[in-house]
Each structure stands twice: as C-alpha cells, then as structure tokens.
Amino acid sequence: MTLLLNILWFIFAGFVGGLAWMLGALILAITVVGLPWSAAAVRIGIFAFAPFGSRVVDRRLYTGRDDLGTGGLGLVLNVIWFLFAGWYIALAHVAVGVAQCVTIIGIPFGFQHFKLALIALAPVGKSVVPA
Known about the structure:
This protein is mainly α. It has helices at residues 2-30, 35-49, 59-63, 72-100, 107-121, and strands at 54-58, 126-130. It has one domain (2-130).
C-alpha cells in the first residue's frame, strides 16, 4: 500500500514538490550565506518525493550523538530559517493539506503535507527515517 501511495504522490504532487525543494537547495548552495540550510532542503526534497512509509525525527534522538545541527548552532539556524522561510512554507503545506483532507481520498495525502509542514518549520537537526 505504501508503494502505491508513493507512486500516486510522486505522479500528482511529489515530483514537482521534490524538484522545488531541490531547486531551493541549489539556490541556497549557490548563495554562500544559504549554504548551512542547503543540506536540510535536500533532505526535505528527498522526503517530498516519497513521504509514505517515512517519518521525521530529531537526529540527536535517532543517532544518540550530538552534531553541529543538533546543538546551539542548529537552534540558531532553525530560528533564522523559521523567520525567513519556514513559517510561510509550512503555512502553504498546511493549506494544501487541509484542502486535501476535505475529500476522503485526499486524507492520506493531506497528512503527508502536514508532515512536510512540520519539517519545513525547523529542518536543521532532523532526519528522515523509515516508519
């Protein structure tokens, strides 16, 4: 079932959404200032291609160790991300998710948009793992 939902997601939303995140990651990488967030945008882009069967977790809890993205620097990067990009990207995912949840067929896809909204709020220090 997960494979079928991922195929439908990829055809109707995931390909364009994943490409948009990859383009954003490329733009962030080109601008030297955005380089710290480009890896997070790539991670979200890969997740956006096929979100069914995956979940977003705090990397510190998943790996059991600290790194640059899970400490104080990660918090600062997430606050900057939230102020300049995260809140309105998350708001767009929530709006699309609510619109998709209006129909019974769209409910699973709406829930995936809610997961994307959560990771879009503060992506630094997060990992995408199999559910």
